[in-house]
Every structure is written in C-alpha cells, then in structure tokens.
UniProtKB/TrEMBL annotation:
It catalyses: adenine + H2O + H(+) = hypoxanthine + NH4(+). The lineage of its organism: Bacteria, Pseudomonadati, Spirochaetota, Spirochaetia, Spirochaetales. This is Adenine deaminase. Residues 67-351 form the Amidohydrolase-related domain. Keywords: Hydrolase, Manganese.
Length: 579
C-alpha cells in the first residue's frame, strides 16, 4: 500500500473523513475464522476501512441480510478456452462473482509466441476483472509435436518480474524436472531467483517422484483425480486445485478428501471452461457450489475460493473482507444450495447486477495474433490410413474427462491395407495436421467413444500445440473440414455428405474471437445440436472440447500428435498396429 492511500484510509477509519460507501446489514464471510457475522462494511477509495458503526459514509446501501462474500479468485484458467477476448471474458465471468483470475496464456503462446503474451497483457489492462499471468513453461508442451513457437528461459526472463506476472505456468514436463533437464531447470531458476510461484501439472504423480517434483518449488497442481492423491499432495505441501472445467470435472471426487485440517491448501479453478458452461452454470462459483452440495461447509469453500488463492499467489491486497483489503466482493442470498452472485463490486464500485455486467469492459484490437495456417500440400491422400495388420491400437475416450485409455480392436482393411470404416463399430479416424511451419506433417490414427455416425468435425483448437485436429468416418468430409479451417484462419467446423453444416470462426490465433459472449454461445449451441442430431456424436461428451484434448501428449494414456501416435505412460511414439 502506498503512503498517500494509507493516509486517506486512516482518516476514514478514525472518523476524520467520510467513507465513500457503506454496505449495511450484511452477513459477512469471515474467511479467517471460517464463519459468518452480521455487520456493516465501510469503503473508501476502493478499499475496506472497517465494520464499526460509528463511521460515516456518503452513500449507504442495505444488503437486507444477504451474504457478503469476498470476490472469488480463479486460481488457474486459460482465457483462450472461453473462445473470448480478455475484455469479453471479463464481462462473462465478473457477473458470476469472480473478480480475479490467474491465467496461463500458453494456448495462444503455443501459436504466436511472445506476440500472444503481449496481446493478452495489453488486452487485459483497464478492465474490471483483475488478470494476472503465469508465463508459459511449456511452449511447446513436449518435443513430440510441432507448435507455433519455442519459448526458452532466455525469452521469459524479461517478463518474469512484470507487475502482473506471478510466476511460471503449469510445468507439464515433469519427466524433464525429474531428469534435471537443463532448460527446465533454467525456467525454474527464474522463479527461484525472483521469488515467484511455480505452478504444477502432474497427473497421477505419486511417491518419490512426486517428492522430487515438489522439492523444486512447484507448489500447485490442478490434475489430481482422487481424494487419496489430493491428500498426498497436500501432505507434501502443495496447493491442490478443485477443478470444474467443461471437459475436466474433478470437484465431486476430490472434495471427498477435503476437511478442516487441509482446507488451507485447497484452491478452486476452472482451467478450461467454454462459453456455454459459463453462461448456464457460471465460472469458478459453480465449482464452489458443487463442493458445498457435496458436503463441504460453505465457510470452508468460500475460504478456498478467496483467501487461499490470495495467499498462494502473494496477492496480499485481496481475498478477504477485512480492513485494508480491496473492496472486491459480491452479495448473494444463498450459500448452502449454490452460490450465485447477485450484485458484484470491484474496488467498491457496483460492476454487475442480476448476472449482467453494467458497463462493458474496454476492448483492445488484436494485433500480431491472426490465425496461423501455414499448411503445406494438404490433400485427401494424406488422410489415407494404411495398416500392416487388423489388430490396432485405439484411443479410447473416457467420458467426463480428457484422460484416454490405450484400447485395442480388430478392424477392417481393403486389399491394399487401407482402413475401412465399419458402421457397426464405434471406431473413427482421427487426424492431426501441422499448421505452423509448413512441414506437411499429417498423422492418422483411430479413436473410439466419440459416437459420430457420419461426417466430420475439425478444429484448430488442439491442446497444446494447436495444430488442426479432425475426426470422421470418411476422408471426403474430413478433407473439406480441414480445408475450411485453413481458409478461415481457424475455428471449429462440421461437414456431412460434402456439405458444410456450420463453422465457428476463431480469427485470433485460431483460438479466440472478437465476437460477444452471446454471439459465441448462440453459435456453439447451434453446433452442439447439429453435432448430436445430424452427426450422431455421443451425448456423453462435449463434441468439441473432447476432440481438442486428443492431441495433448502430457495427459495419459494414448494421444495423437502431428508426428504420430503417442503413449503418454511410456512417453514414446508407438505403432498403430498392436502386438
């Protein structure tokens, strides 16, 4: 806090000057004692002054007995996954009670490099939502795929001490950490030397390997899957995030391992959350509500979504309703059966009411982040899948998450060994097309559990390198879908019987758009309906979110990159043919 601000607040706190605002008759969330108390909250210059009744204020508002909750902090998110620009994302999540996010821009940086980071920093200035960043640690995520950029420790060094840079983003390359990879250690050193946080990403890592990972200063993880894993990670000092994204939903399972003893090490995050999910369910508040419904005491859940994140990331000016803290909070009538923000205040100003933003955030024109589509010599012939045998490895989708299984199946082939789609079997072709460096690489494999009956779906969102990924039962529709994305600069598209069903254009890096939340939601709602009714995609999965994670070679077990079929558990490429 600056001296001038402290002087102003001291005068207000001692009654020598009027406060700007008082919220009266509120049930205030005390995240320190993990309880609620009835009182008044006095505010001056955007900060909380105190609760004392003998203070004066220019403006008075009656909470009418509603709960006054500190603004929620999303401890880990990728704004890009909302398909929205930072300003539109702010307008979407602030009405849900989220006032601060810790964002990792590795999606856009994997496409456009440091230009993406510069855009995200600029576009998130002067908007209601407080946006802090973790510089991406894994661009590319692994050496087993081609991304649009390579960011080394030397590239990140000039950003690490930035005012809104809190540390290093999720360190997905845990094998590199354990093996003392020189470049990985250089990136970790940036945080060691500058006193910054290091986010983790270590699904299923346990025992001595987990201890080795943690001792390097990596102190968070959002990939825990079981209550037992959560407790081991908190025991070893990590903050564990209860994640409720669109595809990855871990709150109900993980909350089983949370209690008063380890609540101080629990955070909430959304990770990847699509616009329909935000519109219909909310943001990080939805995960908090689920945890409460599963039995976690409201006071504990609220603490995890506010104070804990502030402490974890060193945001000492927020996270609680207390003197000297930013007046970021929201009012709600209910906390036991789900938390929905009714009135949202940021720096003591009402910014959203009735789930609507009052004044739209300042928009920043995208620069140097157009969708890169440098694809070489693509044709239908490159989608041809030739097999040496009938028994093959299959990427098996697991509904409700992004983890897959290593499946096997016997498939049909023609006399040349080319795979033939069998309408009776739920097995489809999946292809990844390199789009950044004109390598001409195209890899093909087979996937089960997607449910598509006829046609093709393609998207330029393919975590984390974001090459083009397509799935279908025939090469003609897949070819047209891929070519459509190349022509538009990226997005999501669907074809059936050589006809375009719908296309969602994402002109910012092939990941995001300048369209509004309502426009994006309407388009995706229509496309989801067509995917289910006209293509027959399974109701148990999100047709687009699920597909975009099938190229992520850091999440078990079997994934497809532009270089081939990758066994994440073995951390190596494997042939399509099974033994």
């Amino acid at each position: 806090m600056e001296k001038e601000l402290a002087e102003v607040l001291l005068d207000a706190a001692n009654g020598r000057d009027e406060c700007d605002l008082v919220i009266k008759n509120a049930r205030i969330a005390d995240v320190y004692n993990q309880e609620f108390f009835t009182g008044n909250v006095y505010i001056k210059n955007g900060y909380i002054v105190g609760f004392d009744d003998d203070l004066k204020a220019k403006e008075e508002k009656d909470a009418e007995g509603r709960y006054l909750i500190p603004g929620f902090i999303d401890a880990h998110c990728h704004i890009e996954s909302s398909h929205l620009s930072p300003s539109e994302y702010s307008d979407a999540v602030v009405p849900t009670g989220c006032t601060t996010v810790i964002a990792d821009p590795h999606e856009i940086c994997n496409v456009t490099g440091l230009d993406g980071l510069e855009y995200m920093l600029k576009a998130s200035e002067d908007i209601p939502l407080s946006v802090y960043f973790m510089v991406p640690s894994c661009v590319p995520a692994t050496a087993f795929e081609h991304s649009g950029a390579v960011l080394l420790a030397s590239d990140l060094k000039k950003y690490i001490d930035g005012k809104r840079i809190l540390g290093l983003g999720e360190m997905m390359n845990y094998p590199g950490v354990l093996a003392k990879d020189e470049e990985v250690l250089k990136k970790l050193s940036l945080c060691w030397e500058n006193g910054k946080n290091i986010d983790g990403h270590c699904p299923s890592l346990r025992g001595k390997e987990l201890s080795a990972y943690v001792l390097t200063g990596i102190n968070t993880d959002h990939e825990a899957e079981t209550a037992e894993e959560l407790r081991e990670k908190t025991r070893k000092g990590m903050y564990v995030m209860l994640r409720q994204g669109t595809a990855c939903q871990n709150v109900k399972e993980l909350v089983k391992g949370v209690d008063e003893k380890n609540i101080s090490r629990i955070l909430f995050c959304t990770d990847d959350r699509q616009p329909q999910s935000i519109t219909r369910e909310g943001g990080v508040n939805y995960g908090v509500s689920l945890a409460i419904k599963e039995g976690l005491a409201p006071a504990l859940a609220i603490r995890a979504a506010s104070l804990n994140a502030a402490l974890c990331y060193g945001l000492s000016d927020r996270g609680s309703i207390a003197p000297g803290k930013r007046a970021d909070f929201f009012l709600t009538s209910e906390v036991k059966d789900g938390i929905k923000a009714e009135d949202v205040y940021i720096s003591g100003t009402l910014v959203a009411s009735g789930n609507r933003i009052i004044k739209k955030a300042k928009h920043t024109k995208p620069e140097n982040v157009a969708g890169k589509m440098d694809v070489k010599d693509f044709s239908k012939e490159k989608l041809r899948l030739t097999l040496k045998g009938d028994c093959v490895r299959i990427i098996d989708i697991v509904a409700g998450g992004v983890v897959t299984k290593c499946g096997k199946a016997k498939v049909k082939r023609d006399e040349d060994g080319t795979w033939i789609h069998d309408p009776k079997a739920d097995i489809l072709k999946i292809s990844v097309i390199e789009r950044h460096h004109a390598t001409g690489l195209v890899s093909n494999a087979l996937i089960r559990g997607y449910g598509l009956k006829h046609g093709a779906v393609a998207t330029s969102i393919a975590h984390d390198s974001h090459n083009i990924i397509a799935v279908g039962d025939n090469d003609e529709d897949m070819e047209l879908a891929v070519k459509k994305l190349i022509a538009t600069g990226g997005g999501i598209t669907m074809f059936c019987d050589r006809k375009e069903l719908a296309t969602h254009v994402l002109e910012i890096a092939g990941l995001m758009t300048d369209a509004t939340l309502s426009e994006v939601t309407a388009c995706l709602d229509m496309m989801h309906e067509k995917a289910e009714k006209e293509l027959g995609v399974s109701k148990d999965i999100d047709p687009f979110m699920t597909l975009c994670f099938m190229a992520l070679p850091v999440i078990p077990a079997l994934k497809l990159t532009d270089s081939g079929l990758f066994d994440v558990n073995a951390f190596s490429f494997v042939p399509l043919e099974a033994d």
